[in-house]
Amino acid sequence: MTDARLLRNCRVAGLGALALGAFLTLSGPAAIAAEASTNGGTAPAAKPVTFAKDVAPILQARCQECHRQGSMAPMSLITYEETRPWAKSIRQRVITHQMPPWHIDKTVGVHEFKNDMSLTDDQIATIVRWVDSGAPMGDPKDMPPPRQWPADNEWKAAKELGQPDLVIKSDPYTMAAHHQDVWWRPVSDIPVTEPRWVRAVEVRPTTAAGRRVTHHAVAYLAQDDPDSVLPGTGDSDFGARSFLMEWAIGKGYDLYRPDTGKLLLPGSQISWDIHIHAVGEEIQDSVELALWLYPKGQEPKYRTYLTAFQALRGFKDSTAAQNRLGKNMDIAPNSMSQTDNYTVLRKPAILENFQPHMHLRGKAMLVEAILPDGSVQTISYVGNFNFNWMTNYIYADDAAPVLPKGTVIHVTAWYDNTTANPFNPDPDQWVGYGDRTVDEMGHAWMNVTYISDEDYNAWAAKHKNKLPAEATAQR
Ligand code: HEC
Questions:
Q1: Which of 4, 42, 212, 285 makes the best surface tag, with the fewest CB within 10 Å?
Q2: Which ligand 1 atom is at minimum distance from the Cα of 127?
Q3: d(Cα 84, Cα 50) in Å, to the nearest integer?
Q4: May I ask the CATH architecture of the domain 163-474?
Q5: Ligand 1: distance of its center to the CA of 250 in Å?
Q6: What averages of pLDDT result for each successive group of 10 residues across the chain (475 residues)?
């Protein structure tokens, strides 16, 4: 593959996203307004859009989980009185696809997700028409009954799975009001006395205040088990430890597909790596992890591995100094920049999800699969990465890519160190690799489930004459 092709790919993908944004911003609402104004005369009036009848149900379905008292968002969007002052801002956020925070480009790669919280084009049009027609209340009798919410300390996965089997908490850390970033690395025991398989994992800072200072948390699984280190990837220095779960602002939980899990052995521990930043107020918090287990004695057929597919070169060397030198990250002031890297899958595999990870200059990330026959399939692309939202895009069971042995995963990341990036703390700074939010990194978190050659062959026979991505898109 040539760099020219890469560049072309990047431009096409980037332009596509831009063009779509421009269309929605300008033509969409303008066209709707034009349609509304021509209805003034003899034509039958367009049905008026009201809060009670049309907008409240959308807010209930897609916004209130975060926009209600005691949840994470800055304001409640439950009643008309609460929502009305935000009408213009809501219009802006939904047409630019910033809210709900779902930034993946669904027109390329995998199209279907288990946890899709985005609005449909119709829902966006409804909100825009409502705002453009003066954001009327309508008839209060049309209001849907209020939605009931679980208590604030509920695990998100509890709705689907019930209460977790185990909850493991890190030692607490007290972050000063003003301080440099801290990496808190305590160790916690996992109280299992026999091998147990994990079905789902959820991680969260323990308190709401903790969510403001916890940038992200990685839970490594420390146990004496050579098999727990990613088979088949091998050439990233993350391979030296196995991952259980990664949490970052806005993330939900990992639920493995049927007959798939992660293995815990007696004596295993969680080795935490918690990145905390100061917010001008002293805050004490810990991070906690909930595990849902398979019943005792039940062994799922497949094992899944949380993998950080690098977009940076130079991760082969193991010492920190070598890594710092070798990371190939060199972002000049006031410029755009790009890094990429390749990882070979040495066994057939299913990719379960995609969560791009970059810092404040992160702009876009593309994951492609280069198949053994040389063809290239786009797996996922996020064109307007937003550092505040480390959204985890979980592929629908039937849409998750199934890839043959020898597939190369190619991850490309783009960084915007210009004034055009609203999150950029200082475009005049050079930026290199590092752990702090003002440094950069780039990798795609994916849960990878390795399958046997027989299973892959059976899958391929069923989807004959189709490239994997086409087959997965059409299954
Ligand atoms: C996953 C949680 C979540 C969901 C779902 C969500 N929001 Fe938000 N929203 C937030 C958070 C947190 C912020 C503040 C940080 C930010 O702007 O990203 C925010 C900010 C906003 C703002 C900007 C407020 C300001 O200060 O200007 C608007 C408007 C908004 N959301 C509207 C919506 C609408 C409308 C929906 C549903 C269609 C929605 N949000 C869904 C969490 C959420």
A1: 42
A2: 35
A3: 12
A4: Sandwich (2.60)
A5: 11
A6: 35 32 33 39 68 97 86 87 98 94 91 90 97 97 91 80 94 92 89 92 85 80 66 44 65 82 88 86 91 93 87 63 62 95 92 92 97 96 86 88 95 97 94 86 91 92 64 44
